[in-house]
Design brief:
The structure is a single chain. By secondary structure, the protein is mainly alpha-helical. Helices cover 76% and strands 0% of the residues. It has two domains: 140 residues, no CATH class; 105 residues, no CATH class. It is elongated and about 85 Å long. The two termini are 29 Å apart.
Length: 254
């Protein structure tokens, strides 16, 4: 519905040429926009933006707001249309399912992690430095990302302590075998791309691309809010408009 409303309003607004579009875009960097977008959910921002578009169109039809031409509202319409498309492309239900599967895969590796840690500890139970190195490599409550990194770190440490024939003999007796290390390395290598696929494209709430567009919409709503507040302070008879909730969350400035 948002795209339909944004497209309908955009058709009634002045045509936005590339020069203005580039100038508006240049006022905020992708990094600045992403910082705001990572604090909110895109679908919540979309709802606030839909309401903002309708109200703002009515305002601009009745009053000229200094510092906020109709071209600027056309830019916001374009961003809202782009945001809805980005949300659809993210396919979040499928992503959540993939993340659940990745978490389950990581959890199945926890016995292997604990087995590796125990074997490393048995190798030198009275060596405080060694035990600190084991503890440093181990994540006792790993996330999927932490799980493969922990297995990699523990396997690397295990290979270091098996560097001589005598150390390998003692390590084998302690259960720190070559087979165990190879298993840890193989499982870590298998989990790594799964994690990259399910978390790599996405920031805290939405994909990196969606968060960037989301942040632009948020910053444009804040820009609009400030323009209306300034107009009111200069005597323009326009109703006060509160900053949308998502923009307040994202900006952390009000």
């Amino acid at each position: 519905m948002t795209k339909r409303i944004a497209a309908k309003l955009k058709a009634r607004l002045p045509k936005l040429e590339e020069r203005r579009r580039a100038l508006y875009r240049g006022q905020f960097t992708d990094e600045q926009c992403r910082a705001w977008g990572s604090r909110t959910w895109a679908r919540d921002v979309l709802g606030d933006a839909e309401r903002t578009l309708g109200v703002t169109m009515k305002i601009l039809e009745q009053h000229e707001v200094p510092g906020y031409p109709k071209h600027r509202l056309a830019w916001l319409c374009e961003l809202v249309i782009a945001l809805e498309a980005a949300i659809a492309e993210d396919d979040l239900p499928a992503l959540r399912m993939m993340r659940r599967e990745a978490k389950a895969q990581a959890q199945k590796l926890d016995p292997l992690r604990r087995k590796l840690v125990s074997a490393l500890q048995r190798l030198a139970p009275a060596d405080a430095l060694h035990l600190r190195r084991v503890a440093s490599a181990n994540d006792t409550k790993p996330s999927p990302q932490g799980q493969y990194r922990t297995l990699e770190a523990l396997a690397q440490l295990a290979r270091q302590v098996r560097s001589t024939a005598d150390q390998r003999l003692l390590a084998d007796d302690c259960g720190l075998t070559e087979a165990l290390i190879e298993q840890a390395e193989a499982e870590a290598a298998a989990l790594r791309p799964v994690v990259a696929e399910t978390w790599g494209r996405h920031s805290t709430n939405d994909s990196v691309g969606t968060s960037t567009i989301e942040g632009r919409v948020l910053r444009e709503m804040a820009y609009l809010h400030d323009a209306i507040a300034t107009a009111r302070s200069e005597g323009v008879a326009v109703d006060e408009r509160p900053l949308p909730r998502t923009a307040r969350i994202a900006s952390r400035r009000r």
